[in-house]
Amino acid sequence: MKKLFAEFFGTYWLVFGGCGSALFAAGIPDLGIGFAGVALAFGLTVLTMAYAVGHISGGHFNPAVSFGLWAGGRFDSKELVPYIVSQCVGALAAAGTLYFIMNGQDSFLGIDNTKAGAFASNGYGAFSPSGYSMAAAFVAEFVLTLFFLLVILGATDKFANGKFAGIAIGLALTLIHLISIPITNTSVNPARSTSQAIFTGGEPLMQLWLFWLAPILGAIVAGLIYKNVLQNHEN
After folding, report:
1. Backbone dihedral angles phi then psi of residue 132, each to the nearest 5 degrees
2. Residue 207: closest CA among 223, 187, 222
3. 59-86 burial, b if ≥16 CB within 10 A, otherwise e?
4. Burial (0-12, 13-18, 19+ Cβ within 10 Å), 200
5. Confidence (pLDDT) at 235
6. Helix, strand, coil abundance in the chain, percent, nearest 5
7. What pLDDT is attached to residue 224?
8. Which backbone phi and psi does 232 adopt, to 5 degrees?
């Protein structure tokens, strides 16, 4: 249960910090943090929670990461479903908190699910921040999650310097967001996408399948590549 609570709190912090920065701080005229600030916020959430609770659960905070570590031989299949449920519940709890805070603003009239990026949701086509197609969104999410998992698997390898793993992983997630916020509003995390899509509804919820399929496939391919091509099996 400690592991599941750690995954709950870690994913809660990721969604609250990352999506919260996009909702509350990115668009303020002259003072807003913009795309770069949101990218940094997502990276900081993972970095901080990796050191806070990573030693308890492994610090996945993302169903794709759990699948990638499983494919790489680092995670037991019997723990996959409990981890993913905890991650999704944590993400939904964070989204609920964000919605409650937004509802406390006098000018808030509800979530407009006809616009790209509504409530920090992910999307493609008309719901991509810059109008990227479904195919482009799929490839971006697949490739970026693949490399995210390669970083995670390499940084946490027994031959790596594990003390700095959280920094490498947090910076990798920052870089991923710097690349792909204009494409899909950046997922690489099905739990994060699910929480925002459920509160947004409409087309973003209909497009949610892509933000489960592409990241999980990318993560599994990364796990297989690291296990069979890159990993040092000596000693």
Report:
1. -80, 145
2. 187
3. bbbbbbbbbbbbbbebbeeebeeebbeb
4. buried
5. 61
6. 75, 0, 25
7. 97
8. -85, 115
- Counting every residue written for the chain, the total comes to 235
**CA–CA separation, 9 vs 210, rounded Å?**
25
Which residues lie closer than 8 Å to 86 by C-beta, 6 or more apart?
Answer: 4, 5, 7, 8, 11
Six token digits for residue 31: 């003072």
Q: What is the tens place of the pLDDT at every residue in 191-222?
A: 999 999 999 999 999 999 999 999 999 999 99
Q: In the Cβ-directed half-sphere of 141, how many Cα atoms lie within 13 Å? A: 31
Average pLDDT over residues 59-65: 97
Do residues 169 and 46 touch, judged by C-beta distance below 8 A?
yes
Q: What is the DSSP letter of 134?
A: H
What is the pLDDT, as a whole number, of residue 109?
A: 87
C-alpha of 46 from chain center: 9
The pLDDT, as a whole number, for residue 16 is 97
Residue 107: predicted pLDDT: 86
Task: Let me know how many helices (H) and strands (E) the chain has, helices first.
Answer: 9, 0
Distance (Å, rounded) from C-alpha 67 to C-alpha 58? 13
Q: Tell me the whole-structure pTM to 2 decimals.
A: 0.95
